[in-house]
Write a structure and sequence with these properties.
Nucleotidyltransferase, domain 5, 5 helices
């Protein structure tokens, strides 16, 4: 039984989350520089059973892809070609950064931690993944 990996792709940093084996709960995994992302995914998939990779799809309010989608689409194409045995899907990521910031604020962490963009990216990946899990 494989896990589900979620990616909140950014041009500088990328947040990553992973599900539990039963695919019920999303947990934050890491935030890393985007240029290290493919190496990380290769290593993670070699060591762990992952059946699906969920990539946040940035959409505008009207449902059309946002400007940042031009960076994500080639990345997803590369994922699909390099990991042909693993399902790769998009999932709506509208408002995840704002939701992540609110979640972090409500959790009572210090001001310095709240301003940590890497934490926001990881929590955003968790929100994308939990939303995807809720649809299953």
């Amino acid at each position: 039984m494989g896990r589900i990996l979620a990616i909140d792709y950014g041009t500088k940093r990328t947040g990553i989350a992973v599900s539990d084996p039963l695919k019920i709960i999303a947990g934050g995994l890491d935030t890393l520089p985007t240029h290290d992302l493919m190496r990380f995914i290769k290593e993670y998939l070699a060591a762990n059973e992952v059946e699906t990779i969920v990539v946040g799809k940035p959409l505008q309010m009207n449902g059309q892809p946002s400007d940042s989608f031009v960076h994500i689409k080639p990345f997803v194409s590369r994922l699909k070609s390099e990991f042909a045995g693993t399902e790769v899907v998009y999932h709506d990521e509208r408002f995840t950064s704002k939701m992540a910031q609110r979640t972090i604020l409500e959790s009572g962490v210090s001001r310095a931690k709240r301003q940590d963009k890497a934490l926001v990216d990881k929590v955003s990946a968790m929100i994308i993944l939990q939303s995807y899990l809720d649809t299953l």
